[in-house]
Design brief:
single chain, mainly alpha
């Protein structure tokens, strides 16, 4: 978004400082977290809800062990909460454990088993709360919403109303396409930009099932030119009216459109090379060498293009472009940033082609509009704003401040 004040002008620097700190944190072996939750902040969702939805931790790729940090923290917090809620200030450790078991609705289990069972249920059914920029700000439990099943071709999306600090975020389930009477409401548990194999693996690891939805079955398509050589930037330029709409097209399976030589030895070598260059770019950024960072990220994108065998919408290429785009903006290279932003919009248009009002695409179009507006591309900016409004008026809601701003921008 084009800065309009000194504070906004500092945002790229703040973001990059955050990235540097996160990188440094990830390099550490141990991170100590101290927390002190008040009783009013403990979520109580009914004793039977979690028990009915939990998947055994043995089915997960990361089972909760008794000595794991999460288990130790949960045990300490629950015992502290039980002590505060007890009328007997001299309650014994056994009595406190009994109170915790009653709170968790697991009277037949040991304390360790009950906490592990509940944490596993939380991992299966919690929601990542996001703000208007689709950035995660926390996690929460919504028992009724947790009853919705998953699909990689959802007919619903989730959005959150975030009010005062004293009020919990309100989750809204919003239809993102026409829904027939009696049709099941479903939303996606995973990032839909990811290819099928990765989505399925994550769903198996975090929720304990193999997805068999229509997208995973190869039944979701997107419109693209018949000539594969014309795919580059076509989704963006065609929608923004920059190329003739008479180009011969056909329906292509989304997974086929975003794939390309998956599993081949040369494919893996190129992916690993790009990842290595991105890691080197992160270190260059941490060391303050911005020119080297941009050079390395440009190479991370370029290795895919030079190979000639990758789709322009490939997930690994998309990831590299996102990193390159962020670095360009942080260093004031707006023209180059606009080009990468157009590529990112094209990738999202294809990856999310079966979700008409996905907020990620809307936000990227908002950014493209701001960049083009600041770069003197008035008509392209107006078209990007209109497209963003079509999406975000649903994904964010008509009263969202960003949507209200789009109303002014697109006029």
């Amino acid at each position: 978004i084009t800065p309009e004040s000194a504070e906004e002008d500092a945002i790229p620097l703040l973001l990059r400082t955050f990235c540097a700190l996160k990188f440094a944190k990830d390099e550490c072996e141990t991170v100590h977290v101290e927390t002190d939750h008040a009783p009013g902040q403990i979520v109580s969702c009914g004793r039977e809800h979690f028990a009915s939805l939990a998947v055994s931790s043995d089915q997960l790729s990361y089972p909760l062990t008794l000595d794991s940090p999460g288990m130790k923290l949960a045990k300490r917090l629950m015992l502290s909460f039980a002590a505060k809620g007890s009328t007997d200030t001299e309650a014994s450790p056994q009595e406190k454990e009994g109170l915790v078991l009653r709170i968790l609705g697991c009277k037949e289990k040991t304390l360790d088993e009950a906490i592990r069972h509940t944490l596993t249920a939380f991992q299966q059914n919690n929601f990542g709360v996001t703000d208007s920029l689709y950035a995660p700000i926390g996690e929460a439990v919504y028992p009724h919403a947790a009853l919705l099943n998953h699909s990689c071709s959802p007919n619903c999306i989730l959005r959150y109303k975030i009010g005062l600090k004293s009020s919990p975020p309100q989750l809204e389930i919003v239809a993102c396409k026409d829904i027939s009477s009696g049709e099941e409401l479903v939303h996606s548990y995973v990032d839909l930009v990811l290819p099928t194999e990765t989505r399925r693996n994550r769903l198996r690891d975090t929720h304990g099932f193999i997805c068999e939805c229509i997208r995973c079955a190869g039944q979701c398509t997107v419109e693209l030119p018949r000539d594969r050589q014309s795919w580059m930037l076509w989704p963006t330029k065609e929608r923004l009216g920059e190329i003739p709409s008479s180009t011969p097209t056909q329906q292509i399976d989304i997974e086929e459109a975003i794939g390309g030589r998956s599993g081949e030895a040369e494919h893996l070598q190129i992916v690993n090379t790009s990842r290595m260059l991105q890691d080197q770019a992160t270190r260059a950024m941490v060391n303050g060498n911005n020119d080297l960072e941009i050079q390395l990220l440009q190479q991370a994108v370029g290795v895919f293009l030079l190979s000639g065998g990758f789709s322009p919408f490939h997930n690994e290429l998309y990831t590299a472009r996102c990193a390159y785009f962020s670095a360009l903006l942080a260093n004031g290279k707006i023209d180059e940033g606009i080009e990468q932003c157009e590529h990112i919009v094209s990738s999202l248009s294809v990856c999310l082609g079966n979700v008409k009002h996905h907020p990620l695409l809307g936000l990227q179009l908002y950014t493209l509009g701001d960049l083009c507006s600041g770069g003197g591309c008035g008509q392209k900016a107006a078209n990007a704003y209109r497209w963003a409004y079509e999406i975000m008026s649903v994904s964010h809601g008509a009263q969202d401040p960003m949507v209200q701003a789009l109303i002014r921008k697109r006029l």
